[in-house]
Amino acid sequence: MSLPEPDFEVVAKGDGYELRRYEPFNVAQTRVAGDFDGATENAFERLVDYIQRGNRGNRNLPMMAPVNQFRAEDDASSSWLVQFVMPTEYPLSYLPAPADERVLLQTMPERLVAALRYRGGWSEERYREHEAALLQALEDDGLRVIGAPVFARYNAPFVPGFLRRNEVLVEVADDSPSDEVPPLDR
To answer: How far is CA 16 from the centre of its chain?
Structure first.
């Protein structure tokens, strides 16, 4: 069973990646310290608590995929931001305030994102390998990266590694006119 995902349109394809225009969506987000592999584990309980009545509305909330993890850009230490994507049919005003002040709600704006999909385990080594490949492909295609790379996990932890869908996502500058698709299709 797969979870719903934020709405996006594939606007072009590059060398091993696709460019997606995401519509705005809401997330529950928390900051955690630690290494790459421990970040999601440390954040997961906090975020699960929020969607399972750990909120001021005492409501259960469904979640969507993916679970996103990325380095906090405003922090030189080893902090990570981890996000649960909230259902797109719920406006931010509908979502109850978190009971835990370390959980924040925010809207991710419409944006252009390069996505490289891969299967396998959740190790930092595998992620870094695919992150480097995506960043190199974007540089080769002349696209300007404007956001921190995101590790996106689409499956539950009990799914065997070889069946897991993972992605590296990175926001890129939308320097083209709004009606023009970048000439990347190969």
So the answer is: 18
Q: Is residue 12 part of a domain?
A: yes
How far apart CA 172 and CA 63 sit, in angstroms, is: 26
- Whether 123 maps to a domain, the answer reads yes
Tell me the C-alpha distance between 129 and 79, whole Å.
21
CA–CA dist 20, 113 (Å, integer) = 5
Q: For the beta carbon of residue 9, count every other beta carbon within 10 angstroms.
A: 9
Half-sphere exposure of 168 (CA within 13 A, CB side): 27
Q: Which two tokens stand for residue 183?
A: 């000439």
Q: Look up the CATH number of the domain holding residue 143.
A: 3.20.80.10
Q: In this model, does residue 42 exceed pLDDT 90?
A: no
pLDDT for position 182: 54
Predicted structure pTM score: 0.89
